[in-house]
Amino acid sequence: MQRAAAHSWEAPSAKRSHSWEAPSAKRSHTWEGRQADPGDDDEWGSFSGGSGSEPEDEDEPGQQLVDKVLRLHLLNKISAEDCCTTLHLAVEAGVSQAKRYALGPGSSSGHYSRKLTKALALGDSRELYEFEYPGHSKHELSRTVHKAVCIPFHEQISADMEEDVGCRVQLADLVRERVLPPVYWQHKVVRAATDGERVLPVALYLDGVPYSQNDSVIGWWAVNLITGRRYLWGLLRKSKACRCGCRFWDSVFIFLQVAVWSLQALAEGCFPAVGHDGSPLQGHRAGLAGSRLACKAACIYVKGDWSEFCGTLGLPTWQDGIRPCYLCAAHGEDQFVVAGNREEALRWPMNTEEDYRNCCQRCLRRVRVKSVADRDAISRKLRYDKRQNGNRGRCMTDGLDAFGLFAGDRLEPTARLPDVAGFDSATPPFWVDFWRTSEESATRRPNPLFLADVGISVAENVASDSLHAVYLGVMRVWARVAVWTCLLSGVFGGVGTAEENVATGILAFRSMLMSWYKTRHKERPGERLTRLADFNAKLIGTASSQVLKSKGAETYGLMKFLLHLYGRFQGRLGDTWQRLLKAGLALERVVTIWQEHDWIIPPARRQEALDEYGKHVALMQPFDVYTPKHHIVFHLVQASRWLGNPAKYSTWKDEALNKVLKSACRHACAARFDTVVLLRMRELLRDMRD
Ligand SMILES: [Zn+2]
Ligand SMILES: [Zn+2]
User: Fold this and answer.
1) Range of the domain at 573
2) What φ, ψ does residue 432 adopt, rounded to 5°?
3) Around ion ligand 2, which residues have CB less than 5 A away?
4) Considering every ligand atom, which ligand is closest to the CA of 442?
5) Are residues 499 and 628 in the same domain?
């Protein structure tokens, strides 16, 4: 399987000079070194690698073959039967490492999959943590409660850190050399650490991935920012998420609670004493309560495509009438004004953590339900508001003066009442929270991630992603304008009808692009420039409906080519050629500055990046092509002062792993979906590092 490497221009090609850059100890798979189950009923059981067997080098071709075949199975590319019988042949060919998974032809299909489930520990429930969340069921008309599992990320990170000497050494070096950005040093967990206590920087990432015709899944991830290793810890299928009008929030809220639970454990450096909801722990976790984790960790980034996750995190999206930007108070045309933006601060009043908390305080009404009579009085007025522009969830149809409640006030899930449907049967006295949407500003929901005091705030840790905002955003807009300006300029001939000229232009453009790729590769053989497979009308649309459907990395290569083309054709491209060339060069410079630095970008270069980006936006003004991303990138560029180099929290690798997740989801049986996919992904992710 292809390793999801970071792109050369995103991760600065570090000169490998540090001692810690020596390859770290490679973690073996859970399936390696697993002892034969005493009750193993297969013919190879007695040969399986017990403690007496010789240690085998996992990099041997035999082990590589086994890993590859198992990966193909985990990615659903081959069946359990094909996997077992192939490895059976491998054993016959002398590959001893295949014994544990080998089964000859002629068995029942169930036997093959049981064999692999056991050998790969895919049925192992010890790592899984069970919890419940309110959601939707197609078999029931109203809401229901789903059982879910996750692999808590504090446990995954701790287990890895225990084994990974390389990462510990690397972290110590980065701390000593002060390589990490201010967001790390100012994080409450880092500030509270004692001398010599190392705090690992981590990130949270979430993204939706469509995996079938009619369903998609939100993957909940944690990232070790030193090694780049990803941990998929939870899955929320859209088909199961709550549809009471809350737009998934009732389900998402529980996942956020589980995330906060793990973050608290990592902040304290100890296994939790109770479950995510305060309930007693079960099984081996009860025994671990309070014992030390391998390290403390500080979550410094919540990263992802902002337009995707804003909804999930309860932040206003760009369609929001009051607050189109979740980071500042800009709105309307003012969002794109360049003047007054400095490296120290942008021209717009920024939202602060206090604004967020104030907004929550303004919107929340805490109500004490003293008696069954109180409860029933409120209950009678509650309805699920599913209207498009309604109040989104279980809301009051009328006001109730006795409780200070207005019509439209929404019952909010809380730690005390995690399922709003549970209100009707809760035993008084109890407290509940209502949310008044008319008072909203900085947020649309009280998000436990930002309110739980684990050192995460929207203002300081929500990190916009350069892949979506720049490469798939402003850079692609520029490239679209530049491509079409070129095609409509007549530079490729203008004797036919307009339509014929465009068709000829596309062919000429394509041929020049392909030969430029070749020349460029000859000149810079080391450069990994992602090429467009083709250049045609499907990619760029028509003159009346101009689009550009290039992927992020392809857009970067296309920009490079367009800059070359504009430098060459100049005035033959019409009146706007200088403007477009300058705008493209400015954007290229911004990206180059990110490429040339590690975590920290020096102040002069940060100012330069902001100036260049401002120049780009100003030059693009006459084309009337601004998108919300043109505004967000101002934040992205300026935030490097606090968050560090945007290349460190871009989502190139995460997007690549979404494809792996998609494969792992396919054909997973509905009843054990979360378990199967999480355990498959745990194995698939084991070897992937930056
Ligand atoms: Zn709901
Ligand atoms: Zn803004």
Assistant:
1) 464-644
2) -135, 160
3) 325, 327-328, 330
4) 2
5) yes
